[in-house]
Design brief:
Length: about 375
């Protein structure tokens, strides 16, 4: 399996304490209109009196909803409290023709359409991405291999998330930039700054040589078991959503067939233009085809509230298992192709298939012998 260097995207929301109030009010208003229109319960978290929570609680709840919204880009997203989101985009850029540049620009554009300003950085580890998103010179900022140390050297010491007393101590010593700490032994930094800050500094300095822990070391790329369908325009039409569902279901089924596995648990994410997300799950039974899987989701899809419109569907395979695992038919499936090959060898030469003929077994032939 091909190896990839890990890529971490950090989203910094500089005005989130204020913007979450506006976003929460807009979502509450949209949900209230939806409740009045269809008589359904609102999915937005509200307070005891039906209002959207304010203060730090409201900001955290809003950030968690944004993390769920970021699931359209990668299933590996987490809140970076109090005003950020961290995403593992190692395999996500393959879904965008422009790579990481288009991915970062799309996140920034969509957040801005929700009224949320952001600063974005992509690097080989979370420490560098976090620091460059908050103290970098531009946004979005994409850091290539070997550039991390040079870019982080000019950042202020606050990028290491040091306690205020430690920062004041370094100021008294005349140290203000991360690059100025390079000559200080690691053991002394641990005593002076604490293990976490020293480890973040080590990641920023050693990423170019691959010596950092957990950030730049090569990792095995996870199987690409995700399919996306972007609608040209946001829609509330169940027919259009059903066509998108069939498209991504068929794509996933063929991809799994090439791997020789079947989906045992699926999740469908329906992303609305107002930032709300509807997640549906299904567990296809053994032997079910695409039509049956589409029917499982189609019944649920017809019951959801599309709000002002859904602009993207994302289908993820949460769990998969080998085809015919633990089934006696697996032995027959492995024997049948061998029998076919033996019988073809007995056919007179004039009747053998021409060179380049492909047998009608796309993916794994075992699935056709159940």
């Amino acid at each position: 399996m091909e190896k990839h260097n890990r890529r971490i995207l950090s989203v910094f929301l500089p005005e989130w304490p204020v913007e979450h109030l506006c976003l929460g009010a807009a979502q509450a208003s949209a949900n209230k209109a939806s409740v009045m229109r269809k008589g359904r319960r609102s999915s937005t978290a509200t307070g005891p009196n039906g209002s959207t929570p304010n203060g730090s609680t409201g900001a955290i709840l809003g950030l968690l909803r944004l993390v769920e919204w970021c699931g359209r880009y990668t299933p590996q997203a987490a809140p970076d409290l109090p005003d950020g989101i961290i995403l593992d985009v190692t395999s996500s850029s393959r879904h965008f023709p422009g790579g990481e540049e288009e991915l970062a620009a799309d996140i920034e554009r969509r957040l801005l359409s929700l009224g949320v300003k952001s600063r974005i950085a992509v690097a080989g580890n979370a420490a560098a991405a976090w620091s460059l998103a908050r103290f970098g010179t531009s946004t979005p900022l994409l850091v290539r291999g070997g550039e991390t140390h040079a870019l982080c050297a000019g950042l202020p010491l606050a990028a290491l998330r040091l306690p205020p007393l430690v920062l004041k101590g370094f100021e008294r010593l005349g140290l203000s930039r991360i690059g100025e700490l390079a000559s200080i032994p690691y053991s002394m930094l641990v005593r002076r700054c604490g293990y976490d800050a020293a480890q973040r500094l080590a990641q920023m300095q050693d990423l170019g040589t691959g010596a950092c822990m957990g950030g730049g070391a090569p990792m095995q790329a996870a199987p690409d078991r995700r399919s996306r369908y972007r609608l040209a325009q946001p829609t509330v039409d169940p027919g259009e959503l059903g066509r998108g569902l069939r498209h991504i279901s068929t794509e996933i089924w063929w991809r799994l067939a090439r791997e020789g596995v079947r989906a045992s648990r699926l999740t469908l994410g329906c992303y609305r233009i107002d930032g709300e997300v509807v997640l549906l799950t299904a567990s296809p039974r053994k032997g079910q085809d695409v039509d049956q899987a589409v029917r499982l989701f189609g019944e649920k899809l017809a019951m959801i509230d599309p709000g002002p419109g859904i602009d993207e569907l994302v289908l993820d395979v949460l769990a998969a298992e080998p085809i015919f695992q633990g089934d006696a038919r697996a032995e027959r499936a492995q024997v049948q192709p061998n029998r076919l090959q033996t019988s073809m060898s007995r056919v007179p030469s004039g009747l053998t298939p021409r060179s380049g003929t492909v047998l009608p077994f796309p993916g794994n032939p075992a699935q056709f012998f159940q």
